[in-house]
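Next up, a specimen:

>
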Amino acid sequence: MIFLVLIPIAYTWVLGWWTPMPTGIWGYICYRLYGQSSPAGGTPNIGWIIFGGILTLAVFPIIRNLSTMGPIFGALVGKEPSEDVDPERPLPYKIAWWGLIASIILYVALATVAEVIPIWSLMWLLLITLMLFGSYRLVAETGGYLGYGFGHPFHFASWPQQITGILLAYLNPVVPIVGIEPTRATVMTHAFTSYGLGHGILAGSAYGAGYITLESFKLGKLSNISLRDVMIAVVIALAICLFTHGFGTFLWTLIFPIDKYLGALFAWIPGLFFKIYVSNIAVGVPYWADKARYLNLTQVPGPIDAIIKLIIGVAIVVSLSLARERFPWLRISPAGLILGAAFGMKFWAPFIAALMIKYITLKVGGVRLYDEKIKPIMIGFLYGFGLAFMIHLLIFVPGFIKYHYG
């Protein structure tokens, strides 16, 4: 708040560059402009640098490794590449490519059934897929689990909302969904390609499920576990999750009508967003976080600034990648820079603290103390947090209702 909002607002106002609260623009939008979008702000439009960097991580390695990538792409219609091309691949590339194409077609078809305009769902999904390619490359180079996802959507590095901003700025004038009298199709389209169903379900959950599934296949292969058995386990887990989700929805909406409680956050928020969409979509982009990206591209700082920042992101990745090929001693990772720019202190602080603990432990007690005591404790903390979080989710809703409503 201090460095991203208060200080930029203070000195830009003193220098006469901005008024503290522009007429007709409310606080959240000012936060986007001053704190994270403005060239004078705390992080000068850095979201587009990150976007350009991830985009380059998707494309540039393919260009530089055509001899390897050619057979992989050729597997779409030809034979599988030899085993030495990718000995650790969890499943045949032909299945992966045709699965990708089929999933895109299926998504657009099902979205059309929900009255989502097809060109919007197709463009949204293609851009998401391209960025996920870059994100997985980022994971491969950095080991950063946040690389295959993104931070909270309020954070400007949340690249799915960058995509939303691009579509609202340049596809909406051709096939409008905002700024016109709302219909079921325009509201559903905006819900599926904005902060809502699009980010939460597609870009928020599918990438994680896909990543974990592939890792499960890889682990099964390395452990000499039958991939058929792994697939059976995946299907069983999926069925259990679907049943649990359906039963939970039935329980909390029919037996205990949680949606009637204004403070029941998880059940109340979807209705809130749809109300915002329906009430405000006729006059423009209805939700502030989406509107921030739209204004960033169309007004302040504008498209030229975004393009410049995209080029900077591309240049960082390309130049460092080429430099590392030329100078083997150069250990700076372009993916690491992009990851650090996207998540900064909140991402790196735990790793720095863990590194300090490791060095102190090795210095005081040696390798034996580290391997026998510290490492098991850390792994226990990691998995213990996951268990505690699941327990929290199970008891949060009834506990919340009991506390607030008796």
Notes: The chain has a mean pLDDT of 71.
